[in-house]
Amino acid sequence: MGQNKYTIVEHGNIVSPKGFQAGGLHCGLKKTDRNDLGLVLCDVPAVAAAVYTTNAIQAAPLKVTRDSLQNGTLRAVVVNSGNANACTGKQGEEDAYTMRSLTAAQFGLSAEDIAVASTGVIGELLKMDRVDSGIANLPGQIGGKPESAEAFNQAILTTDLVKKEACVTVTVDGNPVTIAGAAKGSGMIHPNMATMLGFMTTDAVISHDALQQLLRSATDLTFNMITVDGDTSTNDMLLAMASGLADHQVLTPEHKDWDAFAEGFSYVCRVLAKAIARDGEGAKRLIEVTVTGAECDSDAQAIAKTIIGSSLVKSAMFGADANWGRIIAAVGRAGRPVNPETVDIAIGPIAVLEQSRPLPFDEEAALAYLQGDTIHIDVDLHIASGSAVAWGCDLTYDYVRINAAYRT
């Protein structure tokens, strides 16, 4: 692909772009003392865009955020963890709107300036007295330093073991532009987004339509290409905010530096998506599936997602078993064109199938490879030039343990 058009910012975070602050605190929604309420604030009205879960059952905060985004700008997003505020009826909707109005009042903003996001247990009403007191204390916790970003990162986690963040700079009209992101998610993760929340910030000057288009296309190739367990959540949201404080002409797809900006934006999304897959509940290994030679890219995407979502494939990877039969079975049931005589499969450096015929391979070498923390599966269909990459994780005993006791 050639040299990257972006520069990775080590230790960059969601407040690295100009104009952004963040913070978080513990207000008592979680049973532990971990942060459970956070905020990202822009100093100026930010151009904003979002994509949401495709689940027909959608949590109350999504309705509130859609309402706030009608004019295409935001000043802040308030997020709680520990309670999804989903399937909570009219009271849950009122509570989400109350979160918005309380936040607006504390920061001297209009209610429509605020987006709302929630994650956690479904079907329980928010403890609004705790939310109220937490929001009242948020202004004192908001800042532009790395520790402020860290407090926000911790506030959005549920069963996650690690925070997820990424940051890059690109050059637009000769000036640096920063793109950053933070996300949460480790279970109820499946293509078409999942129990994930993602927040992107940038100081780019960009129109709402261009940002929405970029967010959607980047999501299709990153967040929509991960799976942990085949479940799509009620609360998924990926929100992008652009402060416009960088010094350059308005970015559109026709701008000479659009490709560089889009590549950097997609890189941040890809890092966050892979981090979610790697941190799947109970997971030991990240699995990356690359499908080439499909009739078109969408066929390759469907096949890659079917492989990465197969419980049998995931279980084999947990057991370090090079059971390629499970892989080709997933290829065949993906519902897309496949020539049953031309499929090649490799597990890491080990070719196990060529032209749909098994190859002898070193079982001990395969075992050693599969005991690593990242597994690559390559499938070449030899039909045309369609290709795609998907990410997931192995299926472990701990996944069942964690989800068997999620409410308790």
From TrEMBL:
<keyword id="KW-0511">Multifunctional enzyme</keyword>
<feature type="binding site">
    <location>
        <position position="184"/>
    </location>
    <ligand>
        <name>substrate</name>
    </ligand>
</feature>
<keyword id="KW-0012">Acyltransferase</keyword>
<protein>
    <recommendedName>
        <fullName>Arginine biosynthesis bifunctional protein ArgJ</fullName>
        <ecNumber>2.3.1.35</ecNumber>
        <ecNumber>2.3.1.1</ecNumber>
    </recommendedName>
</protein>
<keyword id="KW-0028">Amino-acid biosynthesis</keyword>
<feature type="site" description="Involved in the stabilization of negative charge on the oxyanion by the formation of the oxyanion hole">
    <location>
        <position position="119"/>
    </location>
</feature>
<keyword id="KW-0068">Autocatalytic cleavage</keyword>
<dbReference type="GO" id="GO:0004042">
    <property type="term" value="F:L-glutamate N-acetyltransferase activity"/>
</dbReference>
<dbReference type="GO" id="GO:0006526">
    <property type="term" value="P:L-arginine biosynthetic process"/>
</dbReference>
<dbReference type="InterPro" id="IPR002813">
    <property type="entry name" value="Arg_biosynth_ArgJ"/>
</dbReference>
<feature type="site" description="Cleavage; by autolysis">
    <location>
        <begin position="194"/>
        <end position="195"/>
    </location>
</feature>
<dbReference type="Pfam" id="PF01960">
    <property type="entry name" value="ArgJ"/>
</dbReference>
<dbReference type="InterPro" id="IPR042195">
    <property type="entry name" value="ArgJ_beta_C"/>
</dbReference>
<dbReference type="GO" id="GO:0006592">
    <property type="term" value="P:ornithine biosynthetic process"/>
</dbReference>
<dbReference type="GO" id="GO:0005737">
    <property type="term" value="C:cytoplasm"/>
</dbReference>
<feature type="binding site">
    <location>
        <position position="281"/>
    </location>
    <ligand>
        <name>substrate</name>
    </ligand>
</feature>
<feature type="binding site">
    <location>
        <position position="408"/>
    </location>
    <ligand>
        <name>substrate</name>
    </ligand>
</feature>
<comment type="pathway">
    <text>Amino-acid biosynthesis; L-arginine biosynthesis; N(2)-acetyl-L-ornithine from L-glutamate: step 1/4.</text>
</comment>
<feature type="site" description="Involved in the stabilization of negative charge on the oxyanion by the formation of the oxyanion hole">
    <location>
        <position position="120"/>
    </location>
</feature>
<keyword id="KW-0808">Transferase</keyword>
<feature type="binding site">
    <location>
        <position position="158"/>
    </location>
    <ligand>
        <name>substrate</name>
    </ligand>
</feature>
<feature type="binding site">
    <location>
        <position position="403"/>
    </location>
    <ligand>
        <name>substrate</name>
    </ligand>
</feature>
<dbReference type="InterPro" id="IPR016117">
    <property type="entry name" value="ArgJ-like_dom_sf"/>
</dbReference>
<keyword id="KW-0963">Cytoplasm</keyword>
<comment type="similarity">
    <text>Belongs to the ArgJ family.</text>
</comment>
<comment type="subunit">
    <text>Heterotetramer of two alpha and two beta chains.</text>
</comment>
<comment type="function">
    <text>Catalyzes two activities which are involved in the cyclic version of arginine biosynthesis: the synthesis of N-acetylglutamate from glutamate and acetyl-CoA as the acetyl donor, and of ornithine by transacetylation between N(2)-acetylornithine and glutamate.</text>
</comment>
<keyword id="KW-0055">Arginine biosynthesis</keyword>
<feature type="binding site">
    <location>
        <position position="195"/>
    </location>
    <ligand>
        <name>substrate</name>
    </ligand>
</feature>
<comment type="pathway">
    <text>Amino-acid biosynthesis; L-arginine biosynthesis; L-ornithine and N-acetyl-L-glutamate from L-glutamate and N(2)-acetyl-L-ornithine (cyclic): step 1/1.</text>
</comment>
<feature type="active site" description="Nucleophile">
    <location>
        <position position="195"/>
    </location>
</feature>
<dbReference type="GO" id="GO:0004358">
    <property type="term" value="F:L-glutamate N-acetyltransferase activity, acting on acetyl-L-ornithine as donor"/>
</dbReference>
